[in-house]
Specification:
alpha+beta, single chain, nine-stranded antiparallel β-sheet, 4 helices, 217 residues
Length: 217
């Protein structure tokens, strides 16, 4: 994989999220991009139960994310930003930790109604992959994320100016600077974990917002 940048795309007042997504898709197709299937990035959140946390310790929160680009992997992200990459068996472990035993509460509980996901159309154009995702929590629309990957490069500093030009045509001034997750590692080799951390940051922001009423098309 190459370097990936993920940005939120603003939804102008008076427009629905779907209208903005449709406009972005039309814009990308007019550039000459070809549809290349769909994509999904999702996140489930688990928290440690108070009865199983030492009195001096803080409650632990673990986010479990999946990316359809890496279907055999599971990504676990803590609140401090530490990340563990594992195979899907890690989910079996989390399932066991959420199961209560006789006379004792489970170690973790899944936060109900907290699942969030970005899904949508995937495009390919030259050396770029573009993804336009609608973000939702349950039935509530939360926003739009645009992901751009430049496949031939693994060092952000070597390709940012090229990516910036394409990103600004899609999300405007939001792409004036690299994603905050990547600012401190401009010359390090990019990894799939960097993509997950970008999505986690956006998901956290979307979870804090109150879902707006979407006008009809």
């Amino acid at each position: 994989m190459g370097v990936v940048c993920v940005f939120a795309c603003p939804v102008p007042e008076g427009k629905s999220g779907q209208q903005v997504v449709d406009g972005l898709q039309k814009q990308v197709e007019m550039m000459g991009a070809s549809k290349a299937g769909n994509f999904l990035v999702d996140c489930e959140t688990y928290q440690s139960n108070p009865q199983n946390v030492m009195q001096s310790a803080q409650q632990c929160v673990v986010n479990i994310l999946h990316n359809s680009e890496h279907p055999a992997s599971c990504f676990a992200v803590t609140e401090s930003g530490q990340i563990l990459v594992s195979d899907l068996l890690f989910e079996d472990l989390m399932t066991k930790l959420t199961m209560a035993k006789a006379g004792r509460e489970s170690f973790y509980s899944q936060r109900k109604g907290f699942k969030i996901e970005s899904r949508g159309q995937r495009y390919e154009i030259g050396d770029f992959i573009i993804k336009i995702g609608s973000v939702s929590m349950g039935s509530n629309f939360r926003g739009i994320l645009v992901e751009v990957e430049y496949c031939p490069c693994v060092i952000m500093n070597d390709c940012w100016n090229m990516m910036k030009e394409l990103l600004q045509s899609l999300v405007g001034s939001a792409a004036d600077a690299p994603p905050s997750i990547l600012k401190h590692k401009p010359d390090t080799v990019y990894t799939p974990s960097d993509t997950i951390l970008q999505y986690q940051e956006h998901f956290n922001n979307f979870r804090k917002t109150v879902p707006a009423l979407q006008p009809t098309r």
